[in-house]
Write a structure and sequence with these properties.
single chain, mainly alpha, Growth Hormone, Chain: A, globular
């Protein structure tokens, strides 16, 4: 049991480190813009690029893993991750910073997909939903503690130090992973490389992967610009933004934790009412854009609803792979992070277009359109395509 707990903590720590690296841009957006004398929208572009590269590279690298030992692959990808964050810290200009973020994004997705593959492997059957929820909670813990702390430290010591700290933490986590996790785990190879793609012909999968795209996309239309909304529009200090980011992180942590509860009992069906709540929050953000407490309350609701279907979807993808596409196990385990990041890319890109052409007060309407699409997709998958199955 002690070994299982230690292994679980290491997997959570990997997710925490990945979350810190991905989300820290939100907290230091203003500092980077000041350093390189560029606009908020240009720095916000880093979020889009990171998420897009993440989404594109993850399935490709997952397919290339084949039957290689996953522990061996983890050493390579985390090593590249460490180098990418080190380069971010040393970047002399915005172009080099962008390149460093691309390098980091290239391996972040396959790193979490391998982590998720280990999670059910080390857990008893009754704890599979629990451990998957906790591993994904590593991202929320990064939002609760890591990103606000990084934002605060950035104000004191500069944003470059934050990327050095992330690189150092990743090195420590990698050493712990090598000591504690089994070295024999690998996916079942197919006879042909192309067999791993067969899972993407399954209608259940094709509809299922749209849910995180619409869900996270809707939230990130607004959340990408939370710092300028609070500072430039409402006039709050960076210290207040740090506190608000802590509250948002706590909300997203509850989202991840409650997702385990949903996954244990008709998770997709039960998530519908929460997507409805998210839709209302989006609309209120635009309709009441000059009322600070309404906007902040709506963003916190988004934080609570953002990951609610995460554990359900992760187990949904993996259960289909285990039953019908065993050669695609690592690829299936990467679907949630892949399409969540695709959603982040779509949402942040839409947000940039909306801010540039319509203004920040229209962000909520853009987010609502994506959330409504996710609500419909979830309803159709649950009550039509899966009505004779036990998934969701």
């Amino acid at each position: 049991m002690k070994s299982f707990r230690a292994q679980t903590l290491i997997l959570i720590a990997i997710a925490f480190t990945l979350g810190m690296s991905e989300f820290i841009i939100i907290g230091v957006l203003g500092d980077i813009a000041h350093t390189f004398h560029i606009s908020f929208a240009q720095v916000g572009f880093l979020t889009t690029v990171f998420a897009l590269i993440y989404a594109i590279s993850t399935p490709i690298l997952s397919l290339l893993i084949g039957k290689r030992p996953l522990k061996q692959v983890m050493n390579v990808v985390l090593g590249i991750f460490i180098c990418g964050n080190g380069l971010s810290a040393l970047a002399p200009n915005f172009m080099v910073l962008t390149i460093s973020r691309i390098i980091t994004a290239l391996v972040s997705g396959v790193t979490i997909s391998i982590t998720i593959t280990f999670a059910p492997h080390i857990a008893p059957l009754t704890k599979r939903a629990w451990i998957v929820a906790w591993v994904f909670s590593g991202f929320s813990i990064a939002s609760v503690f890591g990103v606000p702390a990084g934002t605060w430290l950035s104000g004191l010591l500069g944003w470059r130090l934050i990327f050095l700290l992330i690189a150092g933490l990743a090195l420590l986590v990698l050493g712990s992973f090598d000591l504690a996790l089994p070295g024999t785990l690998h996916q079942q190879p197919g006879q042909h490389f192309s067999e791993q793609f067969h899972i993407l012909t399954d209608r259940r999968i094709l509809l299922g992967v749209l849910i995180p795209v619409f869900n996270l996309g809707g939230v990130y239309v607004v959340y990408t610009y939370v710092t300028p909304i609070l500072t430039n529009h409402f006039g709050y200090s960076l210290s207040f933004v740090t506190i608000f980011l802590v509250l948002y992180g706590i909300a997203s942590l509850f989202s991840n934790q409650y997702s385990g509860n949903l996954a244990a009992n008709h998770g997709l069906q039960r998530s519908l009412k929460f997507y409805g709540l998210q839709l209302v929050a989006m609309l209120l953000t635009s309709l009441c854009f000059n009322v600070a407490w309404v906007v902040m309350g709506a963003i916190l609701i988004m934080g609570f609803t953002i990951y609610l279907a995460g554990s359900t979807l992760q187990l949904f993808y993996m259960s289909i792979a285990e039953a019908d596409y065993p050669q695609s196990l690592v690829l299936a385990s990467s679907f949630n992070p892949i399409f969540s990041n695709l959603g982040i890319a779509v949402g942040s890109a839409c947000g940039s277009l909306i801010v540039g052409h319509l203004g920040m007060d229209a962000l909520g309407f853009g987010g609502a359109a994506l959330t409504a699409s996710g609500l419909f997709t979830t309803w159709y998958l649950t009550f039509h395509l899966l009505k004779n199955h036990n998934y969701g």
